[in-house]
Amino acid sequence: MIINKISRIKLYLPVKILILSFFLNKEKSKNFISKKFQNTFKKKYIHLTSMCRVGFLIILEYLKFKDAKKNEIIICSYNLKEMVDIPRILKFKIILVDINRKDGSLDIKKILKKINNKTSAILITNIFSSYSDLIKIRNITKKKKILLIEDNAIYYGNYKRTKNGKKFAGSFGDVSILSFGIMKNVSALYGGAVLTNSREINRFVENRIKKFNSFSFLIYSKQIFLFLLLKSLLSKFIYNFLFFYIIKVSHFKNIDFFLKKLYPAEYFYKKKHIPSVYYSKINGLSINMIYLHIKNEKKLNIERLIRKKNNQNYYKILSKNKNINLLKIEDFNFQNFLEFPIICKEKNALSKYLFKKGIETRFYYYKNCEELLTNKNLYKNNTSTQFENELLCLPSHDKINKVQIIKTCNHIEKFFKTRF
Predict the structure, then answer these.
(1) What single-letter DSSP state applies at residue 116?
(2) Rounded CA separation 119/94 (Å)
(3) What pTM does this model have?
(4) Closest among 194, 158, 156 to 52, alpha carbons compared
(5) What is the 3-state secondary structure (H, E, C) of 14-55?
(6) How many angstroms separate the CA atoms of 5 and 243, rounded?
(7) Residue 268, CB half-sphere, CA atoms under 13 Å: how many?
(8) What is the pLDDT of residue 257?
(9) How many CB atoms lie within 10 A of CB 139?
(10) Is residue 29 part of a domain?
(11) What is the pLDDT of residue 1?
(12) Number of H helices, E strands in the chain
């Protein structure tokens, strides 16, 4: 008898939305998106981009245009390589700041030590960010008159209830960037956005995007093919009998070909230059997909609520396990992780054990990006290294239920009993 496997991957984009996107007017879709984002993120100017990293690239170009002498940017050392690669290639002096062990947020005390008169911006990446930490960082950048760039690629829809209503992640930055990539909870295969209240930044972004080329038809077609292939592989029958075993063997045998398809390729290599595709406008199909996805607010809220309950169940059960560490969660609405993170010194062995029990985990998350810099010996970002080596993510999307979570947690408990 084949036991149903537990997948950590979910493609949130329905095939139906992909098909319908061919028949919509992209200008009407864009107007709806702009009004929705203006209301949600309290930002006046909305620009859709082909990718989240493209928005970041444009903002860095703006900073160089505004004042080339202020060439330092503060970035969290535990990050996606791409977000350090881009300013490195653009010749910014990158100041990496470590995260704190308690909740994985950017260490505020260390930020204050790194700010000087050459600091042009701080990039805050919402990986584990709490509401209170974002408020503190927002206050620092206001006082120091430094641009705050908020990377909200994996925090879409997360919010804090306040006296004035919901305060959404993505509304704290002077500039906020969003992602609608293939694995995101609001997905459009390719897509991103730049949000700001600054007229000056708005004009720069607008003029820059006008000069971009149309998105490559070949690259976009390949992404559609990959999406449809993954959708079929993630279907219950094929996943249980085939795809799970491909994923399992890829992890056990370190098969790069498959691992680079399952994780962002940027995890594995360093870029030498900015790819030409970054200088592309968003495809009209992606605009329509974003529209159809965010228009169905009821579905998004249901998915968000289930994920929140999943994270709460994991937290409640695993907090009793002395062999793993959990991040402090201040608010499960705001820190509503797409996958539930645990910190474990036995990460490799635990991951393999769970795979053997039919539970897929996310082994590769973010990295300590010190390795990208030539002056890396100046940094001692030990917590980022610890997280890279010890952080493992458990499935927490809306197809996961409480029974499966209990099963996963029981297996984790049994693993440690057999180890010690």
Answers:
(1) -
(2) 10
(3) 0.95
(4) 194
(5) CHHHHHHHHHCCHHHHHHHHHHHHHHHHCCCEEEEECEHHHH
(6) 10
(7) 12
(8) 83
(9) 10
(10) yes
(11) 43
(12) 16, 13
Domain that residue 52 falls in: 15-210
pLDDT less than 50: residues of the chain: 1
Give the count of domains, the chain: 1
DSSP state of 100: P
Question: Per the domain annotation, does 129 fall within a domain?
Answer: yes
Q: Is residue 64 part of a domain?
A: yes
DSSP collapsed to 3 states, 124-180: EECCCCCHHHHHHHHHHHHHHCCEEEEECCCCCCCEEEECCEEEECCCCCCEEEEEC
Q: Which helix (H) or strand (E) holds 93?
A: strand 93-97
Place of tokens 């930044």: 201
**Has residue 239 been placed in a domain?**
no
Written as one letter, the residue type at 285 is: L
pLDDT of residue 379: 54
Pull the structure tokens for residue 267: 């995890």
Residue 266, pLDDT score:
59
Tokens of 237: 């029958």
Contact 12, 184 (CB under 8 A): yes
Query: Of 126, 77, 120, which Cα lies nearest the Cα of 99?
Result: 77
Structure tokens at 154: 């994996």
Burial of 338 from C-beta contacts in 10 A (0-12 / 13-18 / 19+):
buried
Angle between helices 297-318 and 284-295 (to 10 degrees): 70
Q: In what order do the strands lie in the sheet with 119-125?
A: 45-49, 192-196, 175-179, 147-151, 119-125, 72-76, 93-97
Taking residue 14's Cβ as centre, other Cβ atoms within 10 Å add up to 16
Exposure b/e, 258-281, CB count within 10 A at least 16 = b: ebeebeeebeeeeeeeeeeebbbb
CATH of the domain at 106: 3.40.640.10
